[in-house]
Write a structure and sequence with these properties.
The complex is a heterodimer of chains A (525) and B (202). With 525 residues, chain A is α/β, with parallel strands linked by helices. Helix content of chain A is 49%, strand content 14%. In chain B, helix 1 crosses helix 2 and helix 8 packs across helix 9. The N and C termini of chain B lie far apart (44 Å). Classes of the chains: A alpha/beta (525), B alpha/beta (202).
Chain lengths: 525, 202
């Protein structure tokens, strides 16, 4: 059996997909697993000996050829066609498009393979999404509200694979820092890094320190750090260094994801467009320092648009020192940071030291979506009880949570009821030949404003708001799409209600129990 | 057909047409700069425009082992180059065509489509043939309707592409080819390759 995985993003994304590759190997131990990658990902080749063949999509060269008048229009067409032919000749039984963009979908559509999963083009159009995970990943991940699931979790759900969250443990007495990322707006200032390194080294003379960098960063790093601290290394060497490291401090880099894979504790300084809820370290126990400025995370395209790099300035050297000390001391949540938790009920979670209520609310939302995406109506009560047990250590006020959820439930049910009724009326008029464009426009306006007007319910109302702005060839297509979105919302309302009932039933029990417990614990009673 | 004249500058003959020199008096520097901008990785290039031929000689010197096919419309220039550059006989193929129709019927088009060699325009030597040379360049690279249709047929696409709003002199891009594919050749095996490439421009 042969399997092709299309992974045409960057090196860090490839590392984030690695748990899924491992699961593929586990499921198909005798299969030859090939990958199609961009040239930059080839740097990881030696780290993944289990991959049979590395096919390369020469993205930069093709992009240059396409834009160069001297290159005949058909020359890059020939090259891409040859790549498609080479891949098709491998006769893959299974093709998985992990990339999820239009380019990869066209490639995936063109390659001959037995079963294809993911975003796949069929001629100029795209195949309908084969499951809820994939559809919601498509709709949610790119937006500002996309941080409900981690990127690796979205992919695991979409492809029906397991991606166990790696744990972390210190390996030695070396501390690695990687000051530079691929994007200036994600960089903490080099002065901060130098100050942090100097102070932390003074506090911990027992530790050894290495500053990591790529060859093209060497000149810059040499100007700021001692030559003996620098490690301008290949990925294989970095992996060796990781194997003797206490932890890694870094921005949003591919090395962050490699360390997570290698079980080396990660402390991330998430700046600029880095959104830890989407692509934070996929590692239980990792810690993240995020900025609290209003513009963070910013759009990934383009430079920082503020007068100064506010998110970077907001994270002081003292804060990173404190977080690193807490990290070293295995504090549950290092001061000023968030910790990645492994939850049996909801999966990857980020918990800050300051806002337990937000943590409970977000994990409740995640539980609901997980049940919805996995189509697990019957398991809702037991999963909700498991979730309650897991978050109980935050000592949430269950009565208050239940009251808020009940209010939100009423509001969502009203929105759902009114939207369905309006949609039906407009559709009936259309079917009777009395289509009223004003009515449709009014419906679009109403729905379009929902998400912004109800920020706490943004995940529930996102699709309804978004279809209001989508172009449709015919009003009936809008009605059909709207009905599907409302059906999904109805399913989530049902699940939400079940979760709410569990909270109402068991919240009181949890609270009574926690009130009964003496300070020293149950064994003292 | 306008009249060519030849001028001796520093012991070298520089042709002119309609009062315009077909090489700079600093022809060596001009040829070196042009060569620097037109480096290629393969072993064959098509050059549109011969002029005095200094750029051809310089380009070949910078690409040892490579060959060129030079397309020119003025036989006198071709004859002059042949006489003066016998040492390049094995590396230079000279093609004389006087119109786009003539070019489309010439076997050079078959060669261009089969090899997909880069097409390099030496604009300074165009003289009064500027428009014609630009058309040669676009046709040979498949970047005008006539050239595109030739390539489409070579690659097994049936029927001619109908391209609207193609202004004179505008070079076609992969977006134009994508439009042709989507409207008339949706199922062709190479259609997906075109769609992939179109995404690189978006």
């Amino acid at each position: 059996m042969k399997i092709l995985v299309i992974s045409l993003l960057r090196l860090g994304d490839f590392f984030l997909q690695a748990p899924l590759m491992r699961d593929l190997h586990r499921r198909y131990p005798d299969a030859e697993i090939d990958v199609l990658v961009n040239p930059g990902t080839l740097a990881a080749r030696e780290l993944f000996p289990e991959i049979s063949r590395w096919h390369v999509f020469e993205r930069d060269r093709l992009q240059k050829d396409v834009g160069t008048a001297e290159v005949p229009l058909f020359a890059p067409v020939r090259d891409v066609a040859a790549l498609i032919e080479t891949l098709s000749a491998r006769r893959y039984s299974l093709l998985l498009n992990f990339t999820h963009n239009r380019l990869s979908a066209h490639l995936a559509g063109a390659v001959t393979a037995g079963v294809k999963q993911g975003l796949i083009a069929e001629g100029p159009r795209f195949r309908p999404f084969e499951n809820r995970w994939l559809r919601q990943f498509n709709e949610k991940f790119g937006g500002r509200d996309g941080g409900l699931f981690h990127y690796t979790e979205w992919l695991a759900g979409a492809f029906g694979l397991e991606a166990p969250l790696p744990s972390s443990s210190a390996r030695g007495n070396r501390v690695l820092i990687q000051p530079l990322t691929s994007d200036a707006k994600k960089n903490w200032s080099v002065e901060n890094w130098k100050a942090w390194l100097s102070e932390f080294r003074a506090r911990h003379p027992e530790l050894r320190f290495s500053v990591l960098g790529a060859p093209f960063e060497e000149e810059f790093l040499r100007r700021h750090f001692e030559a003996e601290d620098l490690e301008i290394s290949s990925l294989t060497k970095v992996r060796d260094l990781l194997s003797e490291s206490r932890f890694l401090v870094t921005g949003d880099t591919s090395i962050k994801h490699l360390a997570a894979l290698e079980n080396v504790p990660v402390l991330e300084i998430a700046l600029g467009s880095s959104d830890p809820w989407k692509v934070g370290p996929y590692q239980a126990g990792a810690a993240v320092l995020s900025s609290r400025v209003s513009c963070a995370p910013c759009p990934s395209v383009g430079p920082c648009r503020r007068m100064s790099h506010e998110c970077g300035e907001e994270i002081s050297v003292a804060r990173v020192l404190e977080a690193a000390e807490g990290f070293m001391a295995s504090t549950a949540i290092p001061s000023g940071a968030s910790r990645v938790l492994k939850s049996r009920s909801v999966g990857w979670m980020l918990r800050s030291d300051s806002d337990a209520t937000e943590f409970v609310a977000r994990s409740a939302e995640k539980l609901l979506w997980r049940l919805f995406l996995e189509d697990e109506k019957d398991a809702a009560p037991s999963r909700a009880r498991l979730w309650m047990d897991e978050v109980s250590e935050s000592a949430p006020d269950w009565n208050a949570i239940a009251a808020t959820m009940a209010l939100e439930q009423d509001m969502l049910e009203r929105i759902h009821r009114e939207a369905r009724q309006s949609l039906q009326e407009a559709a009936n008029l259309c079917l009777a030949g009395n289509f009223d464009p004003q009515l449709l426009n009014s419906l679009r306006r109403q729905w379009g404003n929902l998400r912004a007007s109800q920020p706490r319910l943004r995940w529930q109302l996102q699709e309804l708001s978004e279809i209001a702005n989508l172009p449709f060839a015919h009003p009936l297509a809008f009605f059909g799409h709207g009905r599907r979105v409302l059906d999904d919302l109805a399913t989530r309302l049902f699940l939400r209600n079940r979760i709410l009932n569990v909270i109402k039933e068991h919240g009181g029990v949890h609270e009574r129990l926690s009130r009964k417990l003496p300070e020293r614990g149950p064994e003292a009673t | 057909m306008s009249v060519l004249m030849f001028h001796e500058i520093d012991g070298t003959l520089i042709p002119s047409e309609g009062g315009r020199l077909l090489s700079s008096p600093s022809y060596a520097r001009e040829a070196a700069e042009w060569t620097e901008k037109h480096k290629i990785a393969g072993d064959l290039a098509v050059i549109v425009g011969l002029g005095a031929g200094h750029h051809v000689r310089t380009w070949l010197a910078a690409h040892p082992g490579s060959r060129v096919i030079v397309v020119e419309s003025r036989p006198a220039l071709v004859n002059l180059f042949r006489t003066a550059n016998t040492d390049l006989r094995d590396r230079v193929e000279l093609v004389i065509v006087e119109s786009v129709e003539g070019l489309l019927k010439h076997e050079i088009m078959e060669t261009a489509a089969a090899t997909l060699a880069p097409v390099l325009l030496f604009a300074p030597c165009a003289g009064e043939q500027e428009k014609l040379f630009n058309e040669f360049f676009a046709t040979l690279s498949g970047r005008n309707p006539a050239g595109l249709n030739f390539y489409l047929r070579s690659f097994g696409f049936e029927g001619d592409a109908v391209l609207e709003n193609v202004g004179e002199g505008r070079l076609l891009t992969i977006k134009d080819l994508g439009l042709v594919i989507d409207t008339a050749h949706e199922g062709h095996p190479q259609a997906s390759a075109v769609r992939v490439l179109r995404e690189l421009l978006l």
